[in-house]
Design brief:
265 residues; alpha/beta; Rossmann fold; 2 domains; ten-stranded mixed beta sheet; 6 helices; 13 strands
């Protein structure tokens, strides 16, 4: 009898385990089916307007998502939405740096958009205009929003000498980044002019003079340090209107051009 009881006990244990396994499969299948039937209740778009940028509108993003979905995404089954593809397609927009799409517990699809941040606006001699981003990417100009950043004018990207164009673009990017990291310089520098030789002239917000900077790869930090000292110790004493040009291209010198003479300090 004991042997029979042990056999029956094993059988009951196996039957119980199989029953629970079958029940688990049924519950899981039901949950998956229910999950697959869930639909999008609402589409919510958040754009980083707190950054001060407004290249995009929420309606633009919604329209783009609906277009990519092939239909109005509200009411569409969540299981049939390819979120990663939607993110990649949104990020092809020249104004979008990053897009993230997810679903909350209320079945709302949420879209978080980070815009590309311009640090420099190009307006070259041929009338071509665009922005350069903080990641050194090109951003087109927008008819909806203008970013108030440093402007680069003159012979920028003239498509005559690729190497020169590349060097000029690099110089502009490096100089602008340096200026942005310095509170004083960022408050002073307004425009940059690129001459025919590819050298940079910095135009300050303070009217009355221009700064011959030359090449940004050549002692950029030291040049700006000289400029700061000169502004503090020189211009503060003689006034801001005495000189029409300040030349930083010569090592350890600040060469100033008055309205009628040239004087070396």
């Amino acid at each position: 009898m004991k042997k029979i009881w042990r056999i029956l006990k094993k059988i009951l244990t196996i039957v119980t385990v199989l029953s629970f396994a079958a029940l688990f499969v049924v519950v899981l299948t039901s949950a998956i089916q229910k999950q697959n039937q869930l639909t999008c209740k609402n589409l919510e778009v958040k754009i980083d307007y707190d950054s001060g940028l407004a290249f995009l509108t929420e309606n633009e993003i919604k329209d783009r998502i609906n277009f990519l979905s092939g239909e109005d995404i509200v009411g569409k089954q969540l299981a049939h939405i390819d979120f990663r593809t939607l993110e990649k397609e949104l990020e092809k927009n020249p104004f979008i740096d990053n897009a993230e799409i997810f679903v909350d517990l209320q079945q709302n699809i949420k879209v978080d958009v980070i815009q590309k941040r311009p640090i420099l606006r190009i307006l070259n001699s041929d009338g071509v205009g665009y922005y350069i981003s903080e990641k050194n990417e090109r951003i087109p100009l927008s008819d909806k929003f203008t970013s108030h950043v440093i402007i680069a004018l003159g012979d920028v990207e003239m498509h005559q000498t690729p190497k020169r164009d590349s060097t000029v673009q690099t110089d502009l990017f490096n100089l602008t980044q340096f200026v942005q990291r310095d509170t004083f310089l960022n408050s002073v520098v307004d425009q940059i002019y690129v001459n025919a030789n590819g050298e940079l002239d910095v135009i300050p917000k303070i009217s009355g003079h221009i700064i011959h900077f030359g090449n940004s790869e050549e002692n950029m930090k030291e040049k700006f340090e000289r400029l700061k000292i000169f502004y503090k110790e020189g211009m503060a004493k003689v006034g801001w209107t005495k000189y029409k040009a300040i030349d930083l291209r010569y090592m350890n010198q600040v060469v100033c051009e008055k309205n009628d003479t040239t004087n070396t300090l």
